[in-house]
Amino acid sequence: MDYTNLIAGSWENTSDGCANVNPSDIPDVIGMAALSETADMDRAVASARTAAADWAQATPQMRFDVLDFIGSEILARQAELGQLLSREEGKTLPEGIGEAARAGQIFKFFAGECLRQTGDRLASVRPGVEVDVTRAPVGVVGLITPWNFPIAIPAWKIAPALAYGNAVVLKPAELTPGCAWALAEIISRSGLPEGVFNIVFGKGASVGQHLVDHPDVDAVSFTGSVPTGRAIAAACAKTLKKVQLEMGGKNPMVVLDDADLDLAVAACLNGAFFSTGQRCTASSRLIVTEGIHDRFVAALTTAMQGLKVGNALEAGIQMGPVVDARQLEQNLSYLKIAADEGGTVIGGERLTLAQEGFYMAPALVSETSNDMRINREEVFGPVASVLRARDYDEALALANDSAFGLSAGICTTSLKQASHFKANAEAGMVMVNLPTAGVDYHVPFGGSKGSSYGAREQGSYAAEFYTRVKTAYTLP
Questions:
Q1: Helix-then-strand count for the chain, H and E
Q2: For the whole prediction, is pTM greater than 0.85?
Q3: pLDDT digits (tens, 9 = 90+) for 98-110
Q4: Fewer CB in a 10 Å sphere around the end CB: N or C, the chain?
Protein backbone atom coordinates (compact mmCIF):
# COMPACT_ATOMS: atom_id res chain seq x y z
CA MET A 1 0.00 0.00 0.00
CA ASP A 2 1.37 3.42 -0.95
CA TYR A 3 0.31 6.41 1.11
CA THR A 4 0.53 9.26 -1.37
CA ASN A 5 0.09 13.00 -1.12
CA LEU A 6 -3.21 14.61 -2.02
CA ILE A 7 -2.55 17.97 -3.68
CA ALA A 8 -5.16 19.99 -5.61
CA GLY A 9 -7.42 16.95 -5.79
CA SER A 10 -4.79 14.61 -7.26
CA TRP A 11 -2.93 11.74 -5.61
CA GLU A 12 0.81 12.14 -6.07
CA ASN A 13 3.63 9.81 -5.08
CA THR A 14 7.25 10.71 -4.46
CA SER A 15 10.49 9.06 -5.48
CA ASP A 16 11.33 8.14 -1.88
CA GLY A 17 9.17 6.38 0.71
CA CYS A 18 9.18 5.44 4.38
CA ALA A 19 8.03 2.06 5.71
CA ASN A 20 5.01 1.93 8.01
CA VAL A 21 5.96 -0.80 10.51
CA ASN A 22 3.63 -2.71 12.82
CA PRO A 23 4.99 -2.26 16.38
CA SER A 24 3.29 -5.51 17.44
CA ASP A 25 4.98 -7.47 14.66
CA ILE A 26 8.06 -5.66 13.34
CA PRO A 27 8.48 -7.71 10.12
CA ASP A 28 4.94 -6.67 9.11
CA VAL A 29 5.33 -3.63 6.83
CA ILE A 30 1.87 -2.14 6.39
CA GLY A 31 2.73 0.24 3.57
CA MET A 32 5.06 2.92 2.27
CA ALA A 33 4.44 6.61 2.92
CA ALA A 34 5.61 9.33 0.60
CA LEU A 35 8.73 11.23 1.66
CA SER A 36 7.97 14.67 0.29
CA GLU A 37 10.18 17.62 -0.50
CA THR A 38 9.53 21.29 0.18
CA ALA A 39 8.41 21.74 -3.43
CA ASP A 40 5.52 19.33 -2.73
CA MET A 41 4.51 21.45 0.25
CA ASP A 42 4.70 24.60 -1.87
CA ARG A 43 2.23 23.14 -4.34
CA ALA A 44 -0.10 22.00 -1.54
CA VAL A 45 -0.14 25.46 0.03
CA ALA A 46 -0.69 27.09 -3.36
CA SER A 47 -3.58 24.73 -3.97
CA ALA A 48 -5.14 25.62 -0.62
CA ARG A 49 -4.64 29.33 -1.26
CA THR A 50 -6.37 29.11 -4.63
CA ALA A 51 -9.32 27.16 -3.20
CA ALA A 52 -9.71 29.15 0.02
CA ALA A 53 -11.80 32.04 -1.29
CA ASP A 54 -14.58 29.94 -2.81
CA TRP A 55 -14.78 27.61 0.20
CA ALA A 56 -15.03 30.61 2.51
CA GLN A 57 -18.20 31.55 0.62
CA ALA A 58 -19.68 28.03 0.67
CA THR A 59 -23.14 27.81 2.21
CA PRO A 60 -23.63 26.25 5.64
CA GLN A 61 -25.58 23.45 3.96
CA MET A 62 -22.72 22.65 1.59
CA ARG A 63 -20.27 22.48 4.49
CA PHE A 64 -22.70 20.36 6.50
CA ASP A 65 -23.12 17.88 3.65
CA VAL A 66 -19.36 17.43 3.26
CA LEU A 67 -18.62 16.92 6.96
CA ASP A 68 -21.66 14.73 7.50
CA PHE A 69 -20.56 12.47 4.63
CA ILE A 70 -17.09 12.12 6.15
CA GLY A 71 -18.42 11.39 9.63
CA SER A 72 -20.96 8.87 8.35
CA GLU A 73 -18.38 6.90 6.38
CA ILE A 74 -15.92 6.81 9.26
CA LEU A 75 -18.61 5.47 11.58
CA ALA A 76 -19.69 2.88 9.02
CA ARG A 77 -16.07 1.72 8.66
CA GLN A 78 -14.98 2.09 12.29
CA ALA A 79 -14.04 -1.59 12.68
CA GLU A 80 -11.85 -1.52 9.55
CA LEU A 81 -10.26 1.82 10.41
CA GLY A 82 -9.79 0.78 14.03
CA GLN A 83 -7.93 -2.35 12.95
CA LEU A 84 -5.60 -0.28 10.77
CA LEU A 85 -5.02 2.11 13.66
CA SER A 86 -4.18 -0.68 16.10
CA ARG A 87 -1.92 -2.34 13.56
CA GLU A 88 0.17 0.78 12.87
CA GLU A 89 0.11 2.54 16.27
CA GLY A 90 -0.20 -0.30 18.79
CA LYS A 91 -3.40 0.51 20.66
CA THR A 92 -5.47 -2.52 21.53
CA LEU A 93 -8.18 -3.27 18.99
CA PRO A 94 -11.05 -2.01 21.20
CA GLU A 95 -9.11 1.22 21.74
CA GLY A 96 -8.41 1.53 18.01
CA ILE A 97 -12.05 1.03 17.06
CA GLY A 98 -13.09 3.47 19.78
CA GLU A 99 -10.75 6.12 18.43
CA ALA A 100 -12.02 5.63 14.89
CA ALA A 101 -15.58 6.04 16.13
CA ARG A 102 -14.56 9.21 17.95
CA ALA A 103 -13.21 10.65 14.69
CA GLY A 104 -16.58 10.02 13.06
CA GLN A 105 -18.40 11.64 15.94
CA ILE A 106 -16.16 14.70 15.71
CA PHE A 107 -16.99 15.21 12.04
CA LYS A 108 -20.69 14.76 12.80
CA PHE A 109 -20.49 17.35 15.59
CA PHE A 110 -18.81 19.92 13.37
CA ALA A 111 -21.26 19.18 10.58
CA GLY A 112 -23.85 20.48 13.01
CA GLU A 113 -21.66 23.46 13.89
CA CYS A 114 -21.83 24.48 10.21
CA LEU A 115 -25.52 25.21 10.80
CA ARG A 116 -25.10 26.65 14.30
CA GLN A 117 -22.83 29.58 13.47
CA THR A 118 -24.03 32.77 15.10
CA GLY A 119 -23.27 36.47 15.24
CA ASP A 120 -24.48 39.60 16.99
CA ARG A 121 -26.41 42.64 15.80
CA LEU A 122 -25.98 45.57 18.15
CA ALA A 123 -27.06 49.17 18.34
CA SER A 124 -24.20 51.63 17.93
CA VAL A 125 -23.55 54.43 20.39
CA ARG A 126 -24.11 56.65 17.34
CA PRO A 127 -27.77 57.24 16.38
CA GLY A 128 -29.02 55.25 13.41
CA VAL A 129 -25.90 53.13 12.99
CA GLU A 130 -26.13 49.32 13.05
CA VAL A 131 -23.29 47.04 14.15
CA ASP A 132 -22.86 43.42 13.03
CA VAL A 133 -20.30 41.13 14.67
CA THR A 134 -19.58 37.97 12.68
CA ARG A 135 -16.83 35.39 12.27
CA ALA A 136 -14.80 34.91 9.10
CA PRO A 137 -12.44 32.07 8.15
CA VAL A 138 -8.75 32.52 8.92
CA GLY A 139 -7.76 31.37 5.42
CA VAL A 140 -5.16 28.64 4.87
CA VAL A 141 -4.51 26.53 7.96
CA GLY A 142 -1.51 24.24 8.41
CA LEU A 143 -2.17 21.23 10.64
CA ILE A 144 0.64 19.13 12.16
CA THR A 145 -0.55 16.03 14.00
CA PRO A 146 1.13 13.40 16.23
CA TRP A 147 1.33 9.62 16.02
CA ASN A 148 -0.44 8.69 19.27
CA PHE A 149 -4.00 9.51 18.12
CA PRO A 150 -3.52 9.13 14.36
CA ILE A 151 -7.17 9.59 13.33
CA ALA A 152 -8.84 11.41 16.24
CA ILE A 153 -6.42 14.34 16.42
CA PRO A 154 -6.42 14.95 12.65
CA ALA A 155 -10.22 14.80 12.86
CA TRP A 156 -10.50 17.36 15.62
CA LYS A 157 -8.30 19.76 13.66
CA ILE A 158 -9.59 19.15 10.11
CA ALA A 159 -13.30 19.14 10.97
CA PRO A 160 -13.49 22.61 12.59
CA ALA A 161 -11.10 24.06 10.03
CA LEU A 162 -13.44 23.01 7.22
CA ALA A 163 -16.62 23.78 9.14
CA TYR A 164 -15.59 27.40 9.59
CA GLY A 165 -14.60 27.83 5.94
CA ASN A 166 -10.83 27.37 5.90
CA ALA A 167 -8.61 25.55 3.41
CA VAL A 168 -6.30 22.93 4.95
CA VAL A 169 -2.84 21.47 4.50
CA LEU A 170 -2.23 18.47 6.79
CA LYS A 171 1.24 17.16 7.66
CA PRO A 172 0.61 13.94 9.63
CA ALA A 173 3.04 12.05 11.83
CA GLU A 174 5.65 9.92 10.06
CA LEU A 175 5.06 6.89 12.31
CA THR A 176 1.33 6.50 11.55
CA PRO A 177 0.63 7.47 7.94
CA GLY A 178 -2.04 4.85 7.27
CA CYS A 179 -4.86 6.39 9.29
CA ALA A 180 -4.15 9.87 7.94
CA TRP A 181 -4.22 8.57 4.37
CA ALA A 182 -7.44 6.64 4.96
CA LEU A 183 -9.06 9.78 6.36
CA ALA A 184 -7.78 11.84 3.41
CA GLU A 185 -9.17 9.28 0.99
CA ILE A 186 -12.63 9.61 2.54
CA ILE A 187 -12.38 13.41 2.44
CA SER A 188 -11.42 13.25 -1.24
CA ARG A 189 -14.81 11.64 -2.03
CA SER A 190 -16.92 13.89 0.19
CA GLY A 191 -17.80 16.55 -2.40
CA LEU A 192 -15.25 18.99 -1.02
CA PRO A 193 -13.90 21.18 -3.84
CA GLU A 194 -10.42 20.29 -5.06
CA GLY A 195 -7.63 22.00 -3.18
CA VAL A 196 -9.60 22.80 -0.03
CA PHE A 197 -7.99 19.82 1.70
CA ASN A 198 -4.43 18.67 1.02
CA ILE A 199 -2.18 16.14 2.75
CA VAL A 200 1.61 16.02 2.48
CA PHE A 201 3.62 13.20 4.06
CA GLY A 202 7.24 13.58 5.09
CA LYS A 203 9.69 14.65 7.74
CA GLY A 204 8.72 17.24 10.28
CA ALA A 205 12.14 18.89 10.13
CA SER A 206 11.78 19.55 6.40
CA VAL A 207 8.23 19.68 5.03
CA GLY A 208 6.68 20.32 8.46
CA GLN A 209 8.98 23.26 9.08
CA HIS A 210 8.34 24.55 5.57
CA LEU A 211 4.59 24.51 6.26
CA VAL A 212 5.12 26.54 9.43
CA ASP A 213 7.36 29.07 7.70
CA HIS A 214 5.31 29.40 4.52
CA PRO A 215 4.15 32.98 3.90
CA ASP A 216 0.83 31.83 2.41
CA VAL A 217 -0.19 29.91 5.55
CA ASP A 218 -2.34 32.02 7.86
CA ALA A 219 -2.48 29.78 10.93
CA VAL A 220 -0.80 26.67 12.33
CA SER A 221 -2.26 24.13 14.75
CA PHE A 222 0.27 21.70 16.22
CA THR A 223 0.11 18.79 18.65
CA GLY A 224 3.41 17.28 19.78
CA SER A 225 6.43 17.85 21.99
CA VAL A 226 7.22 20.96 24.01
CA PRO A 227 10.53 21.78 22.25
CA THR A 228 8.93 21.53 18.81
CA GLY A 229 5.93 23.54 19.97
CA ARG A 230 8.12 26.33 21.29
CA ALA A 231 10.05 26.44 18.01
CA ILE A 232 6.79 26.62 16.03
CA ALA A 233 5.51 29.46 18.21
CA ALA A 234 8.71 31.42 17.62
CA ALA A 235 8.54 30.80 13.86
CA CYS A 236 4.88 31.85 13.66
CA ALA A 237 5.61 35.03 15.58
CA LYS A 238 7.99 36.15 12.83
CA THR A 239 5.19 36.18 10.27
CA LEU A 240 2.35 36.98 12.73
CA LYS A 241 0.53 33.71 12.05
CA LYS A 242 -2.13 32.52 14.44
CA VAL A 243 -0.76 29.53 16.33
CA GLN A 244 -2.33 26.85 18.50
CA LEU A 245 -0.16 24.41 20.44
CA GLU A 246 -1.02 21.28 22.39
CA MET A 247 2.13 19.89 23.96
CA GLY A 248 3.10 17.77 26.92
CA GLY A 249 1.65 16.73 30.25
CA LYS A 250 2.88 15.45 33.58
CA ASN A 251 -0.57 14.89 34.93
CA PRO A 252 -1.20 14.37 38.65
CA MET A 253 -3.79 12.06 40.13
CA VAL A 254 -4.37 12.75 43.82
CA VAL A 255 -5.66 9.87 45.93
CA LEU A 256 -6.91 10.90 49.38
CA ASP A 257 -7.33 8.73 52.45
CA ASP A 258 -11.11 8.75 52.09
CA ALA A 259 -11.05 7.55 48.47
CA ASP A 260 -12.81 4.38 47.35
CA LEU A 261 -9.70 2.21 46.94
CA ASP A 262 -11.07 0.04 44.13
CA LEU A 263 -12.28 3.08 42.19
CA ALA A 264 -8.94 4.86 42.68
CA VAL A 265 -6.94 1.85 41.50
CA ALA A 266 -9.16 1.41 38.45
CA ALA A 267 -8.88 5.12 37.54
CA CYS A 268 -5.09 5.12 37.91
CA LEU A 269 -4.69 1.83 36.03
CA ASN A 270 -6.67 3.27 33.14
CA GLY A 271 -5.04 6.67 33.20
CA ALA A 272 -1.46 5.45 33.51
CA PHE A 273 -1.32 2.30 31.39
CA PHE A 274 -4.16 2.11 28.87
CA SER A 275 -3.12 3.09 25.34
CA THR A 276 0.35 2.00 26.57
CA GLY A 277 0.55 5.29 28.47
CA GLN A 278 1.04 7.10 25.16
CA ARG A 279 -1.43 9.89 25.92
CA CYS A 280 -0.64 13.49 26.81
CA THR A 281 -3.41 13.22 29.43
CA ALA A 282 -1.99 10.05 31.05
CA SER A 283 -1.82 9.87 34.85
CA SER A 284 1.95 9.97 35.25
CA ARG A 285 2.23 11.29 38.84
CA LEU A 286 0.15 9.48 41.46
CA ILE A 287 0.07 11.61 44.62
CA VAL A 288 -1.21 9.53 47.52
CA THR A 289 -1.82 10.58 51.12
CA GLU A 290 -0.28 8.69 54.04
CA GLY A 291 -3.29 6.79 55.31
CA ILE A 292 -4.00 4.97 52.05
CA HIS A 293 -0.55 5.03 50.43
CA ASP A 294 0.69 1.51 51.18
CA ARG A 295 -2.64 -0.17 50.44
CA PHE A 296 -2.96 1.78 47.20
CA VAL A 297 0.55 0.93 45.98
CA ALA A 298 0.03 -2.76 46.76
CA ALA A 299 -3.36 -2.87 45.04
CA LEU A 300 -2.21 -0.94 41.96
CA THR A 301 0.90 -3.12 41.67
CA THR A 302 -1.26 -6.25 41.63
CA ALA A 303 -3.64 -4.77 39.06
CA MET A 304 -0.77 -3.50 36.90
CA GLN A 305 1.04 -6.82 36.92
CA GLY A 306 -2.19 -8.53 35.90
CA LEU A 307 -2.46 -6.56 32.65
CA LYS A 308 -2.11 -8.77 29.58
CA VAL A 309 0.50 -7.30 27.25
CA GLY A 310 0.70 -8.44 23.64
CA ASN A 311 -0.16 -7.98 19.98
CA ALA A 312 -2.65 -5.12 19.74
CA LEU A 313 -4.86 -7.07 17.33
CA GLU A 314 -5.28 -10.13 19.57
CA ALA A 315 -8.44 -10.61 21.60
CA GLY A 316 -8.07 -10.10 25.33
CA ILE A 317 -4.95 -7.93 25.13
CA GLN A 318 -5.10 -5.03 27.59
CA MET A 319 -1.90 -3.20 26.65
CA GLY A 320 -0.20 -3.17 23.28
CA PRO A 321 3.39 -2.38 22.35
CA VAL A 322 5.27 0.90 22.50
CA VAL A 323 5.09 2.68 19.13
CA ASP A 324 8.73 2.23 18.05
CA ALA A 325 12.27 1.40 19.16
CA ARG A 326 13.22 4.99 19.99
CA GLN A 327 10.23 5.46 22.28
CA LEU A 328 10.89 2.12 23.97
CA GLU A 329 14.51 3.08 24.62
CA GLN A 330 13.38 6.40 26.08
CA ASN A 331 10.95 4.67 28.43
CA LEU A 332 13.58 2.24 29.67
CA SER A 333 16.15 5.00 30.11
CA TYR A 334 13.78 6.97 32.34
CA LEU A 335 13.28 3.92 34.54
CA LYS A 336 17.05 3.60 34.94
CA ILE A 337 17.30 7.29 35.81
CA ALA A 338 14.51 6.89 38.38
CA ALA A 339 16.28 3.93 40.01
CA ASP A 340 19.59 5.83 40.05
CA GLU A 341 17.87 8.75 41.77
CA GLY A 342 16.49 6.51 44.53
CA GLY A 343 13.10 5.35 43.26
CA THR A 344 11.86 1.78 43.58
CA VAL A 345 11.00 0.46 40.12
CA ILE A 346 8.32 -2.23 39.89
CA GLY A 347 7.96 -3.84 36.45
CA GLY A 348 9.06 -2.03 33.32
CA GLU A 349 11.21 -4.77 31.80
CA ARG A 350 11.56 -5.32 28.05
CA LEU A 351 9.34 -8.24 27.05
CA THR A 352 10.14 -10.93 24.51
CA LEU A 353 6.93 -12.40 23.13
CA ALA A 354 6.05 -14.83 20.35
CA GLN A 355 6.05 -12.01 17.81
CA GLU A 356 8.88 -9.52 17.55
CA GLY A 357 7.58 -6.19 18.78
CA PHE A 358 8.34 -3.17 20.94
CA TYR A 359 6.93 -4.67 24.14
CA MET A 360 7.53 -3.67 27.73
CA ALA A 361 5.81 -4.42 31.00
CA PRO A 362 3.98 -1.52 32.65
CA ALA A 363 6.05 0.16 35.36
CA LEU A 364 5.37 1.82 38.69
CA VAL A 365 8.08 3.85 40.46
CA SER A 366 7.44 4.29 44.17
CA GLU A 367 9.27 6.26 46.87
CA THR A 368 9.89 9.25 44.64
CA SER A 369 10.18 12.97 45.30
CA ASN A 370 8.85 15.70 43.05
CA ASP A 371 12.32 16.95 42.14
CA MET A 372 13.25 13.66 40.46
CA ARG A 373 13.32 13.64 36.66
CA ILE A 374 10.64 10.94 36.56
CA ASN A 375 8.29 13.56 38.06
CA ARG A 376 9.46 16.57 36.06
CA GLU A 377 9.76 15.27 32.48
CA GLU A 378 7.19 13.59 30.25
CA VAL A 379 8.05 9.93 29.63
CA PHE A 380 5.16 9.13 27.28
CA GLY A 381 4.98 5.44 28.03
CA PRO A 382 3.37 2.94 30.47
CA VAL A 383 5.23 4.44 33.41
CA ALA A 384 3.75 6.07 36.52
CA SER A 385 5.45 7.38 39.64
CA VAL A 386 4.05 7.55 43.17
CA LEU A 387 4.56 10.49 45.53
CA ARG A 388 3.66 10.33 49.22
CA ALA A 389 1.80 13.34 50.67
CA ARG A 390 1.00 14.13 54.31
CA ASP A 391 -2.47 15.51 53.61
CA TYR A 392 -4.66 17.18 51.02
CA ASP A 393 -2.84 20.52 51.20
CA GLU A 394 0.52 18.95 50.44
CA ALA A 395 -1.02 16.79 47.73
CA LEU A 396 -2.45 19.87 46.00
CA ALA A 397 0.88 21.67 46.27
CA LEU A 398 2.68 18.70 44.72
CA ALA A 399 0.07 18.45 41.96
CA ASN A 400 0.63 22.10 41.02
CA ASP A 401 4.42 21.92 41.28
CA SER A 402 4.97 21.23 37.59
CA ALA A 403 5.86 23.04 34.41
CA PHE A 404 2.82 21.36 32.83
CA GLY A 405 -0.87 21.90 33.38
CA LEU A 406 -2.94 19.79 31.03
CA SER A 407 -5.07 17.42 33.13
CA ALA A 408 -5.35 16.74 36.86
CA GLY A 409 -7.46 14.31 38.84
CA ILE A 410 -8.53 13.53 42.38
CA CYS A 411 -10.09 10.45 43.96
CA THR A 412 -12.08 11.31 47.07
CA THR A 413 -15.51 10.92 48.63
CA SER A 414 -15.34 14.46 50.05
CA LEU A 415 -17.40 17.01 48.15
CA LYS A 416 -15.50 19.78 49.93
CA GLN A 417 -12.08 18.52 48.81
CA ALA A 418 -13.29 17.75 45.31
CA SER A 419 -14.75 21.25 44.93
CA HIS A 420 -11.59 22.87 46.26
CA PHE A 421 -9.43 20.79 43.91
CA LYS A 422 -11.52 21.69 40.86
CA ALA A 423 -11.09 25.37 41.69
CA ASN A 424 -7.40 25.27 42.61
CA ALA A 425 -5.73 22.61 40.44
CA GLU A 426 -3.52 24.39 37.91
CA ALA A 427 -4.74 22.44 34.90
CA GLY A 428 -6.98 23.06 31.94
CA MET A 429 -9.01 19.91 32.65
CA VAL A 430 -9.89 18.43 36.04
CA MET A 431 -11.32 14.97 36.75
CA VAL A 432 -13.00 13.84 39.96
CA ASN A 433 -13.09 10.06 40.53
CA LEU A 434 -12.27 9.56 36.84
CA PRO A 435 -9.03 8.86 34.94
CA THR A 436 -7.09 11.95 33.88
CA ALA A 437 -7.26 10.60 30.32
CA GLY A 438 -10.58 10.41 28.53
CA VAL A 439 -12.37 13.52 27.30
CA ASP A 440 -15.54 14.40 25.40
CA TYR A 441 -15.47 15.79 21.86
CA HIS A 442 -18.09 18.53 22.31
CA VAL A 443 -16.31 20.47 25.07
CA PRO A 444 -12.99 22.39 25.05
CA PHE A 445 -9.68 20.55 25.32
CA GLY A 446 -6.46 22.17 26.48
CA GLY A 447 -4.23 23.04 29.39
CA SER A 448 -2.19 25.74 31.07
CA LYS A 449 1.48 26.51 31.62
CA GLY A 450 3.76 24.48 29.33
CA SER A 451 1.01 22.17 28.10
CA SER A 452 -0.94 24.45 25.77
CA TYR A 453 -0.72 27.77 24.01
CA GLY A 454 -3.43 29.62 22.16
CA ALA A 455 -7.13 28.94 21.81
CA ARG A 456 -8.76 25.71 22.99
CA GLU A 457 -9.45 22.78 20.70
CA GLN A 458 -12.75 20.92 20.22
CA GLY A 459 -16.38 21.84 20.77
CA SER A 460 -17.75 25.24 19.87
CA TYR A 461 -14.61 26.80 21.39
CA ALA A 462 -12.71 25.68 18.28
CA ALA A 463 -14.17 28.74 16.53
CA GLU A 464 -11.79 30.92 18.54
CA PHE A 465 -8.83 29.60 16.55
CA TYR A 466 -10.31 28.80 13.16
CA THR A 467 -12.10 32.14 12.69
CA ARG A 468 -11.43 35.85 12.99
CA VAL A 469 -13.99 38.23 14.45
CA LYS A 470 -15.24 40.90 12.04
CA THR A 471 -17.14 44.00 13.11
CA ALA A 472 -19.17 45.83 10.44
CA TYR A 473 -20.91 49.23 10.79
CA THR A 474 -23.85 50.31 8.61
CA LEU A 475 -25.73 53.54 8.25
CA PRO A 476 -28.95 52.44 6.48
A1: 15, 23
A2: yes
A3: 999 999 999 999 9
A4: C
